[in-house]
Amino acid sequence: xxxxxxxxxxxxxxxxxxxxxxxxxxxxxxxxxxxxxxxxxxxxxxxxxxxxxxxxxxxxxxxxxxxxxxxxxxxxxxxxxxxxxxxxxxxxxxxxxxxxxxxxxxxxxxxxxxxxxxxxxxxxxxxxxxxxxxxxxxxxxxxxxxxxxxxxxxxxxxxxxxxxxxxxxxxxxxxxxxxxxxxxxxxxxxxxxxxxxxxxxxxxxxxxxxxxxxxxxxxxxxxxxxxxxxxxxxxxxxxxxxxxxxxxxxxxxxxxxxxxxxxxxxxxxxxxxxxxxxxxxxxxxxxxxxxxxxxxxxxxxxx
Length: 303
Fold this sequence. Notes:
By secondary structure, the protein is an alpha/beta fold. It has two domains: 7-118 and 260-287, 3-Layer(aba) Sandwich (Rossmann fold); 120-258 and 291-296, 3-Layer(aba) Sandwich (Rossmann fold). The protein is 42% helix and 19% strand. The strands form three sheets. A six-stranded parallel beta sheet has the order 2-1-3-4-5-11, with helices on both faces. Helix 1 (18-34) runs parallel beside helix 12 (263-276), helix 5 packs parallel to helix 6 (153-163) and helix 7 packs across helix 9 (209-221). The N and C termini lie far apart (73 Å).
């Protein structure tokens, strides 16, 4: 008898982000390799819309969905939707988010329930190593964080503070979203402050590549910006080949952190667990890497 074809639904935050687009593309390739059907949904950065989309999948009649994979636009990770999915016999997988309810949900589940995430604290540690390589004798970095609604912001910041040299001070800004415009608006608002004009900044580091590019645009657009500030090192995170890595090669960014897509690994674990009737490990972390390696970054003269 031919094995039944699995049907999976992948819910992502937005199609207007290179890493999310990479998630969708890599997931489609992995689903094809596994012989599974995959539907990809985008929430347009709207947690309410994402929750509604997921509930529509759970409540759909006449369509057998084996699992829902969610990269949440909300810090909560949609616990009510997760319980509804598991109750309906659908596996539940959380991507790139810390969902505190998973342990409890797993205890009574008859389907796989787990998470696959980039190691966000390690991403921050690698950012700290990059700064150490660039400024071994110290300096000041303007650090652009993602939106507070994202669960990746805090561990990335914690990792950075863990490994950066003590002589490097960090000035943090918060962006309202993960876009280039968000990074530009956050840095532009800071640059308009009278205190910013005299503040010594040796590098701009952001929690994703688009924020870093937006920060660079903000410096370039400011009237009277000294060339020394435009030539600052700009560093990001995600390292998608066609964007982040290309921007490093072109010189728009000094460095990035390559974050492999987590969806393909999640699909592989999911398919194996469903076929074997097993509950996989609750949490799997995907390792990032610096691009280029921190040791390849030339120290900057800030004298």
